[in-house]
TrEMBL record:
Biased segments, Basic residues type: 346-359
Gene: LOC100501330
Region (Disordered): 285-359
Location of the Replication factor A C-terminal domain: 115-205
Protein name: Replication factor A C-terminal domain-containing protein
PANTHER family, alphabetized: OS03G0429900 PROTEIN
UniProt-recorded Gene Ontology molecular function terms: DNA binding; zinc ion binding
Record field: compositional bias (Basic and acidic residues): 285-302, 329-344
Keyword Cytoplasm attributed: no
Keywords: DNA-binding, Metal-binding, Zinc, Zinc-finger
Keyword DNA-binding attached: yes
Length: 359
């Protein structure tokens, strides 16, 4: 196995969400061309894809892809999203009980991070598990008479996508508090995007994929959600990191307060591949279309509003320029070859069951 890193526009063009979604029930077979083998810090070998890199994913008219599909088992192994370890994973945070977190000041302690261990015992009543998120800044999108409008002042976006905002209630026997899971942590916990679950469940209809985590004990790194906390008796916290997951345990002894929802549940070459099922095509993102539709910069700022998912890890875009596979005249010259730009990459793990790369 070798890791492949995409940088610059190639990272924005790669539709990782679509790959993850399709990969839950279908094979994802990819051919990457125009990559270079690089060494990071003298010991870490990986494939680098910059301006010369192109890819072909699940294209049924490419013999190499169909040949590889034939070697795979009929039942695909679901793709899993992995997360790189950041500084928070090794940093020691102040450990607090939920009784102590109850007294955190939403203004004076804004931005402070704490570590706590608690068991999820339910979901806050009368709240939804997802929300309409602005495609540019992740702020909440509301419906107006003439369409949709972003709630962030100055944002011109009128398009949205469904993202997680799961209001779990957790307890450690000292107190019960609300812990909010936004899109990144929601996907890490559940393994599916909010948009995938939204195809089956209404915002007020809690999916079993979410309720199945009730009863599990976790160690979290959290911070207070200031704007929401000033409107409620007890503060609400955003889960920034899941440090550890423990075994499921009975929650009857935890449930003692109201507002908690308990658990519920070519023709000759391709002829031999005719019997294979068609792969699900995966396209790239059109980032040029997005740039034309808005004057806003591509980067987004992290916020601390409970209605806004801190962004910056998944940038929504799409691609339109695609050259034919096998073109011998593609430009192999790298325009970006900075050895220090690894942190800006979007990581893709290539395994024998999910795809192959070709230089």
């Amino acid at each position: 196995m070798i890791e492949l890193s995409l940088s610059g526009k190639r990272a924005l063009e790669f539709d990782g969400d679509q790959v993850l979604d399709v990969g839950q029930q279908h094979h994802v077979i990819a051919i990457f061309v125009g990559t270079l083998v690089k060494l990071y810090k003298g010991e870490y070998t990986f494939l680098s894809g910059t301006s010369a890199c192109r890819w072909y994913i699940n294209e049924n008219d490419i013999a190499e892809i169909k040949a590889f599909q034939k070697s795979l088992p009929s039942e695909p192994v679901p793709i899993k999203k992995t997360y790189l370890q950041n500084d928070d994973a090794t940093h020691k945070f102040e450990e607090k009980s939920l009784e102590q977190l109850k007294h955190v000041d939403p203004f004076l302690d804004m931005g402070q991070r704490y570590q706590c261990t608690a068991t999820i015992i339910g979901i806050t009543e009368n709240q939804t598990w997802c929300y309409k998120a602005c495609k540019i800044c992740n702020s909440a999108i509301i419906q107006k008479e003439n369409g949709y409008k972003c709630t962030k002042e100055g944002c011109p976006s009128t398009q949205f996508e469904w993202k997680y905002k799961i209001p779990f209630i957790a307890s450690d026997h000292t107190y019960n508090l609300e812990f909010m899971f936004f899109e990144k942590k929601g996907m890490e916990l559940i393994g599916k995007s909010a948009s995938t679950l939204r195809k089956q469940y209404e915002p007020k209809e809690i999916p079993p994929d979410i309720t199945s985590w009730i009863g599990y004990k976790f160690t979290f790194v959290v911070r207070v959600l200031s704007k929401k906390s000033v409107k409620t008796i007890d503060p609400s916290f955003e889960v920034l990191m899941i440090k550890e997951k423990y075994q499921k345990e009975p929650i009857i002894s935890f449930i003692s307060s109201s507002g908690v929802v308990p658990a519920e549940s070519s023709s000759s070459t391709m002829a031999e591949y005719k019997e294979l099922p068609l792969l699900v095509p995966i396209t790239s993102k059109d980032i040029e279309k997005k740039e034309r539709s808005t004057s806003q910069p591509e980067h987004t700022e992290e916020t601390q509003d409970m209605d806004i998912e801190p962004s910056g890890i998944w940038e929504e875009s799409q691609i339109s320029n695609k050259r034919s596979f096998g073109d011998p005249n593609y430009d192999k010259q790298e325009t970006t070859d900075d050895k220090d730009d690894l942190p800006q990459f979007k990581k893709i793990r290539s395994t024998h069951s999910q795809g192959k790369s070709k230089k």
